[in-house]
Amino acid sequence: MSTFDFDFFVIGGGSGGVRAARMAGQRGVRVAMAESGALGGTCVNVGCIPKKLYSYAAHFAEAFEASHGFGWEGAAPTLNWNRLKANRAKEIARLNGVYQQLLQGAGVRLISGHARLVDPHTVQVGAERFTARHILVATGGQPSLPPVPGGELAITSNEVFDLSPFPQRLVVVGGGYIACEFASIFNGLGAQVTQLHRGEQVLNGFDQDVRPFIATEMRKAGVDLRLSSEVASLAREAGALRVHLRGGEVLTADAVLYATGRVPNTRQLGLEAAGVRLTALGAIEVDAQHRTSVPSIHAIGDVTARVQLTPVALSEGMAVVDHLFGPAAGKPPRTVSYELIPTAVFTHPNIGTVGDTEAQARQNYGRVRVYRTDFKPLQHTLSGRTERTLMKLVVDDASDRVVGLHMVGADAGEVVQGFAVAMKAGATKAVFDSTLGIHPTAAEEFVTLRDPVGPAG
Q1: 6-142+263-325, CATH topology level
Q2: Which residue pairs, CB below 8 angstroms and at least 24 apart, start in 383-387?
Q3: Which residues are part of the catalytic machinery?
């Protein structure tokens, strides 16, 4: 008979933690989960889901304007910001309930409160202590605010969904995907958006052609994107926010959104007491099996800062369950591959990417061939909009394998997902060339690119 209260104790009810707890519970494992907030974590509550809903909302203004070129007449409707917020909140509450039902259906005991490690097998939640053979830390991350004077006046992506009233003038600070997404979204919703980034170009780490292309498209859509621009201080004056830049200029805003990075949620978890090592950046250090420096404690998702994407956390959670309790009947044990992870950025237009950037491919493979095109989509031949689409393939010259695929354009994430499957299967450029395109679509361009941009090298 076990001397532990539970076989598996999960700290954190985000996407990865919920998936791990549910999968373990379905296998008859005695599972508990502690969560101090709403189930679903960042993704469901203040991340992927509400952000995508607001992105949909922001596209309607563009669609109404574009419809005139297709014969539709009349003024566009106006945004009811409060209704959008209320409808979003209702949907998120529904999802919270779905998560709770799934966990309860799997026999997981839900414990409300902040959990703290006492030792390698003990967790304290409030006044109660629980013991577990295995503990999983899946507490995610949170936005960070830089230490600029007046920084407490800024908001983060956690608060942006419920701003009241709607910010007619929004300053977004940052050049990563979260900053670019919210700049696009609020610009589409009707705000006057100024985006400030201290770097020379947005989206560091993305392909060298994607970065300037999306910057151009965002500016064309109305975002006042300012590069090599840094905030010196924030102040509230006469009912508005004053954003003082290092060059001396002062901007006036109704709200200032800082999207300059996220940090792992490792504070007040008792990690030190349990002997769990952290990386230099404050994330939990894990090995290939997601074990921490303490064998009984594992960690997944954003708290490890390995790859901060929801599908990665889900995959890691399932891998941990297979590792600890064995795979599901008839299934091989899961492992997580961090190669060829597809991702999307919900700017306007969207970005979809999988595999290496051109620079990474040159470093990894030496000689590569690059295929690239940009064009006006068929829709905009009548809409009157000047938006363009970019598509790019990076091919290892020696093997002919497609090792990088990048797109900026409508529904880029939807398009790239399918190509990611082909690339996982090792598709070569010859396979792409032999595949018939669906006409007329933008996606067919990926299988009709014939001439590389310059010689292989």
Answers
A1: FAD/NAD(P)-binding domain (3.50.50)
A2: 383/65, 383/66, 383/67, 383/69, 383/70, 384/65, 384/66, 384/68, 384/69, 385/62, 385/65, 385/66, 386/220, 387/217, 387/220, 387/221, 387/349
A3: 439
